[in-house]
Amino acid sequence: MYSDDELTDILNIRLSKKRLTHSLNVAAEAKKLAEFYGYENPAEAYTAGLIHDCCKEVPTEEQLAMVKKSRRNVCEAELLSPALYHAIAGAYYAEHVFGFTDEDFLNSIRYHTTARANMSRIEEIVYLADLISAERSYKDVDRMRRAAYQSVDYAMLEALRYSVAEVVGKGAYLPLHTIEAYNQYTKISKNGGVK
Q: Are 69 and 92 in contact (CB under 8 A)?
């Protein structure tokens, strides 16, 4: 198993400076969120955040090759969306090259862009950390940062509302598991579970 320092050295070779900075920021935010929500292993959240984009700058054809080898429920909308390949490829790479075996850990990389219903806590943490990392500067980022430290369910619902609107606004494909995640957190909200 690689240490975080070794992983950072590898990412320094694999990623641009901008992408490495983002990865380090997501790692730091994931650890902070993990501590805030009492997740049992903040160091694991840090590592997942660190490597979540490990395949982001790999050529598209190589990403697609890993996607096709993946055993992680790839849907048609994802196959039609090259921008989503890196998350699936990243989980594959984390498992087959870095040697990670924990399913929740691997799913936190796999679903960090699209989300899904019934996410584990580490999956939610990495998804949110990616959306609110320090270098992010989109219009609603401050609102999202506040939401992330209110409740996980509220933060996930707000994040999914934002993400779904962005995807629809671009006329891109929306994976079924993203819709299922949105519906799940909406149901929690309607049942009084979201503040």
A: yes
- The dihedral over CA atoms of 185, 188, 193, 194, expressed in degrees to the nearest 10, equals 30
Six-digit token pair at 86? 């890196």
CA separation, residue 171 to residues 32, 85, 91, 127 (Å): 34, 18, 26, 22
pLDDT per residue, tens digit, the chain (195 aa), is: 799 999 999 999 999 999 999 999 999 999 999 999 999 999 999 999 999 999 999 999 999 999 999 988 899 999 999 999 999 999 999 999 999 999 999 999 999 999 999 999 999 999 999 999 999 999 999 999 999 999 999 999 999 999 999 999 999 999 999 999 999 999 998 887 654
Task: Give the Cβ contact number of residue 80 at 10 Å.
Answer: 11
| C-alpha to C-alpha distance for 159 and 140, rounded to whole angstroms | 10
| Dist. CA 153–CA 183, nearest whole Å | 12
Structure tokens at 48: 């997942």
* Cα–Cα dist 15/149, whole Å: 29
Other residues' Cβ atoms within 10 Å of the Cβ of residue 150: 12
Give me the DSSP letters along 4-29: HHHHHHHHHHHS-HHHHHHHHHHHHH
Max Cα distance, the chain (Å): 47
Rounded Cα distance between 34 and 44, Å, is 9
